[in-house]
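Work Package 4 report. The design task specified in the project plan requires that, given a folded chain encoded as C-alpha cells, an amino acid be chosen for each position. We show below one input record used in the internal validation round.
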C-alpha cells in the first residue's frame, strides 16, 4: 500500500525539492522502525538508493547516480518513478553520447509498461 502511494505522489509533486522532502521523510520513518517487516526493509533500501542517486545527479555525477538508481530498481522493479529518474540521467549523459538518448527512451518505455497513465512524463 505505502509503495503505491509514494510512487503516485512523486509524479504529482511540483518540484524536485518536494520529491526529496517526501522521500527523506519516508526514509526516516522506515529507518526508525525497531523491528521492520521485510517489505519495509526493502522499501527503506529502495528509497535510500533513490535518494543517493538524486543527490549524485545534482552533483553531475551521472555514472554514480545511475548506479544507485539501478540498485533501487533491483529492490523494486515495479516503481515507474525510478525508470523516469533513470531516463533523466541518461538524457543528461546523452550530451556525451547519442546512445544514452536511446537508453533514456528505453527507460521511459519501461515506465509506461508499468504505468501507462504516465505518458505526459515521457515527453521531455
Amino acid at each position: 500500500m505505502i509503495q503505491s502511494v509514494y510512487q503516485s505522489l512523486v509524479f504529482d509533486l511540483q518540484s524536485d525539492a518536494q520529491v526529496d522532502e517526501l522521500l527523506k521523510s519516508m526514509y526516516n520513518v522506515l529507518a526508525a522502525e525497531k523491528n521492520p517487516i521485510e517489505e519495509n526493509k526493502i522499501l527503506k533500501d529502495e528509497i535510500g538508493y533513490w535518494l543517493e542517486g538524486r543527490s549524485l545527479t545534482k552533483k553531475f555525477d551521472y555514472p554514480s547516480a545511475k548506479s544507485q538508481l539501478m540498485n533501487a530498481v533491483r529492490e523494486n522493479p515495479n516503481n515507474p518513478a525510478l525508470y523516469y529518474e533513470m531516463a533523466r540521467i541518461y538524457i543528461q549523459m546523452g550530451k556525451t553520447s547519442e546512445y544514452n538518448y536511446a537508453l533514456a527512451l528505453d527507460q521511459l518505455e519501461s515506465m509506461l509498461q508499468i504505468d501507462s497513465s504516465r505518458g505526459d512524463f515521457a515527453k521531455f
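The helical segments are 2-12, 16-32, 38-58, 62-75, 80-93, 98-114. Validation will be extended to a larger panel in the next phase.
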